Amino acid sequence: MAYAQPHPRLSVLSSSSQSSAEHLSPSTSSTRFSLPSAPSVHSTLVTGKPGQRPNIYDRNLNRTRVAEVSASAFAFLFSEVVQYTQKRVSGINDLERRLNTLGYRIGTRVLELTAWRAESASKTPKREIRFLPALMSIHTQVWKAVFGKSADAIEKSVENADEYMIIDNDPPIERYISVPRDMSQLSCSSFTAGIVEAVLDGLGFPARVTAHNTPNSQHPSRTTILIKLEKSVLDREELLNQKQ
Predict the structure, then answer these.
(1) How far apart are CA 150 and CA 219, in angstroms?
(2) What are the CA-CA distances from residue 104 to residues 60, 101, 196, 197, 239 (Å)?
(3) Are 163 and 156 spatial neighbours (Cβ–Cβ below 8 Å)?
(4) What residue ranges are annotated as transmembrane (predicted)?
(5) Which residues pair with 10 in a beta bridge?
(6) Could you give the domains of the chain?
(7) By the 8 A CB rule, do 1 and 92 touch?
(8) Strand 10-15 and strand 153-157: pairing?
(9) Where are the strands (E) in the chain, listed by range?
């Protein structure tokens, strides 16, 4: 099986040195992920009684510290998800498709959460209607909300106007995944691609998002999230450019 690798001729649109509005991003370190935590087995539907822990549904969504999950716990859980899924697929394509589907379900919830926090933090919240600002918010805010850090770069294909790339030199979800040699083309970041695709769909920028291994000498785990926009998005962008 061979991947259609991202085009070698790329123009860099942004890097991790670029910053965006930080009001959506929880304050996290690179060793922790901000993910919804599971309710305790001791939680009950009734709250307020002495000795009982508050129900997860009563927690403030804007308090991110209570929603952190340790990197080791997340890595263990994700590894189990990959192994469970691997036993129930017929090949690499099927495995990546299922990981993408799982990521899509997470992405819809991430978008809801970040939108809620944006409205809570600002009296005049703004919904992006242009693609590049929306892509920048994914590069910074969404990545920080899920992985505790920004992505490393955004690139645009010089040859294809409908292709953009998000570069992550060290994907957190791949740090503790050991891929067999006969499955070297597998990219577990298909899970991340699903998250990106869900967020883009929710923002009104439908696209097909895939993950590709693009290692180099400095970053052996380097991954490219390839975004191929639908024609309707390009037509709308062109129309908006004409109105400016």
Answers:
(1) 16
(2) 24, 5, 8, 7, 29
(3) yes
(4) none
(5) 157
(6) 71-243 (3.30.1380.20)
(7) yes
(8) antiparallel
(9) 10-15, 32-34, 68-70, 153-157, 163-168, 207-213, 223-229
Count of Cβ atoms closer than 10 Å to residue 9 Cβ: 10
Query: pLDDT tens digits for the chain (244 residues)?
Result: 444 444 444 555 655 544 443 333 334 444 444 444 444 444 334 444 556 666 766 666 666 555 567 788 888 889 899 989 989 998 899 999 999 999 999 999 999 988 888 777 777 777 788 999 999 999 999 999 898 899 999 999 999 999 999 999 999 888 888 888 888 889 999 999 999 999 999 999 999 999 999 999 999 999 999 999 999 999 999 999 888 7
| Structure tokens, 98 | 């299922």
Place of tokens 């939108």: 115
User: What six digits make up the tokens of 48?
Assistant: 């307020």
Short-list 177, 140, 162, 183, CA closest to 226: 162
Query: 168, 197 in Cβ contact below 8 A?
Result: no
Among residues 199, 201, 202, 210, the alpha carbon closest in space to that of 230 is found at 201
